[in-house]
Design goal:
4-stranded mixed beta sheet; alpha+beta; single chain
């Protein structure tokens, strides 16, 4: 069972971005041996820097990554 929590900061919540991020994060489950719990933070700074931060917990494993680019979708792809 995957539990994916997505938080938007300094930007409007959109279903398209939320669905895109959820789909990409959910794909990571196939590499993990335990159920995954993840927290994704999407942040837009100064209307041009899009940062994605991901924390994933699966059993005893913990993964953290963050990426910044000028496009939110590109940031999501890069952080994966």
């Amino acid at each position: 069972m995957n539990q994916i929590s997505i938080t938007f900061r300094h930007m409007e919540t959109t279903d398209a971005v939320k669905a895109y991020a959820s789909e990409k994060i959910a794909r990571l489950q196939r590499f993990l041996r335990a159920p995954m719990k993840s927290q994704v933070t999407l942040d837009c700074q100064q209307d041009r820097l899009h940062t994605v931060e991901v924390d994933i917990h699966a059993g005893n494993s913990h993964f953290h990554a963050h990426e910044t680019s000028e496009d939110m979708y590109a940031s999501i792809d890069k952080v994966i």
